[in-house]
């Protein structure tokens, strides 16, 4: 499990399970330049005290199994090799892992829900989760994060040939929490993967979702909703690595920001390697700035190493509420705060409506309403 390199790409060149293979970040590196390292509480440099606790409670679908296993379980680490120091630290430090398995051709009749509850943010906790869908299985998995924690983890999704997996990851932490997570999916032939990342709570949340293809025909859709309030740092760093022919990917992340020093970061990296002819990919990030004093960094990157693609593109836009939209609504007797609320609902609601689990969808919609209530009267 030594150092691995990807010499054909200028993005994400290093991967290793060993913490020592990665330099301690200084903040000058491309992958760390937007992250306030001082707020990571030592997760990045090995100084964090590792006696924190995050409890995992599982509610499995009848067709799925959920196990707590030790570090030596051979199913762990099959799909993902850490690509930065925090991820390698999480791999080296977890004591037990959660493994979800859906057997071949099974169609889950209900979501499998993993509730991760932090009990103390004063010390670090580390975790690992592996979700395995055997060929032609179908399932929905919910990762619900709450409580107070300083937490780093890795999550692997192994989607077998012809399988269909939908994942909803809800970051609804308490205000004092720090969460750094890598969520990696590997897709088999003709596999379908859909992810929803919703980041609402926490002091600093940095989520790195990624997708790789093991065979032709894979299809990935990655959606994200986030709402950064005053002082919050919410960061999403995506990677879609097209290395197989005739695969597809779609990315759509949208966020809103309000309050002094609210900061949202979105990095979208797509690599189309030489062998990935027939790739069809598009990524989009949009941010709605609701008040002064916020900051948005949005960086799409597309690296194409073959001329034979079906489609490849990206777009990024960040801006304030449209004055014409607000004027139109206010001219019809709607107050400024209500007009603001309607515009934000429409902007984020298009992605919220895609969430397949009604309870989660309603919870996210209610959380957005609560954020808008806190921002009422601000301009």
Automatic annotation (TrEMBL):
<feature type="domain" description="SUF system FeS cluster assembly SufBD core">
    <location>
        <begin position="120"/>
        <end position="347"/>
    </location>
</feature>
<dbReference type="InterPro" id="IPR011542">
    <property type="entry name" value="SUF_FeS_clus_asmbl_SufD"/>
</dbReference>
<dbReference type="InterPro" id="IPR037284">
    <property type="entry name" value="SUF_FeS_clus_asmbl_SufBD_sf"/>
</dbReference>
<dbReference type="InterPro" id="IPR000825">
    <property type="entry name" value="SUF_FeS_clus_asmbl_SufBD_core"/>
</dbReference>
<comment type="similarity">
    <text>Belongs to the iron-sulfur cluster assembly SufBD family.</text>
</comment>
<dbReference type="InterPro" id="IPR055346">
    <property type="entry name" value="Fe-S_cluster_assembly_SufBD"/>
</dbReference>
<dbReference type="Pfam" id="PF01458">
    <property type="entry name" value="SUFBD_core"/>
</dbReference>
<dbReference type="GO" id="GO:0016226">
    <property type="term" value="P:iron-sulfur cluster assembly"/>
</dbReference>
<protein>
    <submittedName>
        <fullName>Fe-S cluster assembly protein SufD</fullName>
    </submittedName>
</protein>
